[in-house]
Design goal:
The chain is built from 23 helices and eleven strands. With 559 residues, the protein is mainly α. Helix 8 packs antiparallel against helix 9. It is globular.
């Protein structure tokens, strides 16, 4: 098995533990690079703590990186391809999406690396002399992380090799677990972790009880639509979501935009976050799948503003890699209502101010032939509707209307802008990534209540999110009625609230509507997508390094 050819025990400590070792500060889970770790280091108290910290590092391969983003936002109903980049087979569902694509193996290998670290933490605990109370928490953290990693693998690839003991040497003995076995193992880990995790932690970034409850709720929601669904899956998910909402002091922020304020990352809405850092040494040694490590999401949603009249690239507006652009369905339907709902304006950047004064010929705005700017003038405005040529001619700047959108010019997602980078070409963003936040919990609760037929409870949960998203004085107008609290409404509300946050592909897949939604709203992929695309190809390296090959570890159908 590929990961076992890589993940000898020395690999667990020699690589994984390099990422998250040391605790020089009391309120965060800090990273300090170390070297020269021996095989028995993990059996010491310090080594054991370092290994637990190391188990978190695999999160940073999947969240806030281009591989993770490609596997969660490409190929959905709300995002299409931009002009730049490759890996577009994940969006087109064509022959470019095949078992040899390196992103598939990269995510696979790194998540298994994290799993084996967790296995070692759980199995080696009896040899460590930490206080029993501390040890119990560390084992619970490892079980939470192991379940989290297996859930990602399971949702992306289907049943995988379910290894729950430490792999100490290379092996080619492997097999695929059934759906029932996968759910049983994941639910067991989370159910055992929840009572032993603390309600909160003085070290920001550690797993806590509400994070595990929210993870388990997501598992039950996925199971509720699966071939092994049980009659109580929705009720269990609802109970867990209600606990997260009621028992730990989390609160929705008053303003949707403030959730993503880079100066307010540890806010009352965040249930669990993956930490990133501005330390270049950590970023360079951290195997995140990015060129230079760090949170890279600031790179991938930006339009090509920097070659337009009056503009040049700067730190504030970001480095636009143009990987993803919103679909017409996303801008016109999901975010179509803007009188009461603030989320279109606060999700997408619509105004650019000139940082390169002068007089220029216009490009995309045919209502005028030239524009002249001094520093700070509006240079580009995206109104979000088809403003008439006559009205555009009255403006002293270029107006980008929907008919002029392209793979290079489009509304830019603003959630992940990172203005704290040291220069305009720097790729390693330092923002944390919010894996779980309270608005998501409310929408999960609504989904569970819809599944249970409790439409009033569903409407109440949705309205918590919608009232917060309202423009001032529009809260009542944003509320939905009981009759509106349907599954389809939840599908769109999750898109409005969570666009770009690495949830959409997983949502559509678990609901069983991926193919239908892509055919309706993703014209680039409508002709190609099939039921086989509810799973990713198993990395060919995994099959090649399994004794018996495809007969023992079969490829997913159609690949």
């Amino acid at each position: 098995m590929k990961i076992n050819n890589i993940l000898k025990h020395a690999r667990v400590l020699g690589v994984a533990a390099l990422m998250l070792t040391g605790q020089s500060c009391s309120d965060v889970l800090n990273e300090t690079v170390v070297s020269g770790i021996g095989n028995d280091y993990m059996n010491t108290n310090k080594g054991y703590e370092d290994a637990v910290n190391a188990a978190y590092s695999s999160l940073r391969n999947y969240y806030a990186t281009q591989p993770g983003l490609t596997m969660t936002e490409f190929g959905t109903d709300i995002y299409a391809t931009g002009a730049d980049g490759s890996y577009k087979g994940f969006h087109f569902y064509d022959t470019q999406l095949n078992p040899t694509v390196d992103y598939l193996a990269q995510i696979w290998d790194e998540l298994y690396r994290g799993i084996n670290t967790c296995n070692a933490i759980i199995e080696r605990a009896p040899k460590v002399t930490l206080a029993d109370a501390t040890k119990k928490i560390r084992i619970a953290e490892a079980k939470f992380l192991r379940a989290h990693y297996y859930f990602i693998l399971f949702q992306q690839y289907g049943g995988v090799d379910l290894r729950l003991t430490e792999t100490l040497a290379p092996t080619k003995q492997t097999k695929r677990a059934s759906d029932a076995e996968m759910y049983n193992a994941i639910i067991k880990d989370l159910t055992e972790a929840i009572p032993d995790l603390p309600n909160s932690s003085t070290q920001y970034g550690r797993a806590i009880k509400p994070a595990a409850e929210m993870c388990l709720a997501k598992v039950y929601l996925a199971k509720a639509y699966s071939s092994v669904k049980a009659s109580d899956d929705f009720s269990k998910a609802a109970t867990l979501c209600s606990s997260v909402i009621s028992n730990y002091g989390f609160k929705l922020l008053d303003d949707f935009a403030s959730v993503f304020d880079e100066n307010n990352q540890k806010n009352s809405e965040v249930v669990f976050a993956v930490q990133y850092t501005s330390d270049p040494l950590t970023n360079l040694t951290n195997n995140t799948g990015a060129v230079n490590g760090g949170n890279n999401l600031h790179l991938f949603f930006g339009m090509q503003y920097d070659v337009q009249a009056g503009m040049q690239r700067d730190i504030v507006n970001g480095r636009p890699f143009k990987r993803l652009r919103p679909t017409t369905y996303c801008t016109d339907v999901v975010f179509g209502e803007r009188v009461n709902d603030s989320r279109y304006k606060k999700t997408f950047k619509d105004t650019w101010y000139s940082n390169k004064p002068g007089t220029y010929a216009t490009a995309f705005d045919d209502s005028k032939t030239s524009v002249t700017f001094v520093a700070g003038d509006t240079a580009i405005f995206i109104p979000g509707y088809e403003m008439s040529k006559a009205d555009r001619a009255k403006k002293k700047y270029q107006v980008l209307v929907p008919s002029k959108y392209s793979e290079a010019l489009f509304p830019t997602l603003r959630k992940f802008f990172d203005t704290k980078r040291p220069d305009m070409t720097y790729e390693s963003g330092s923002r944390d990534f919010f894996v779980y936040r309270l608005a998501d919990t409310y929408l999960m609760l609504a989904e569970a209540q819809v599944g249970l037929g409790n439409k009033q409870a569903a409407a109440d949960a949705i309205n918590m999110v919608r009232r917060r998203a309202a423009w001032a004085g529009k809260q009542s107008a944003m509320e939905i009625t009981t009759d509106q609290a349907t599954f389809d409404y939840v599908v769109e509300e999750r898109a409005r609230e969570l666009a770009g946050e690495q949830t959409r592909w997983m949502d559509l897949k678990r609901w069983g509507i991926l193919v239908d939604r892509v055919k309706k709203y993703n014209p680039q992929a409508a002709a190609n997508i099939k039921d086989i695309h509810n799973l990713r190809p198993i990395p060919q390296t995994q099959i090649d390094r399994t004794e018996g090959g495809n007969a023992t570890f079969p490829q997913n159908p159609g690949f």
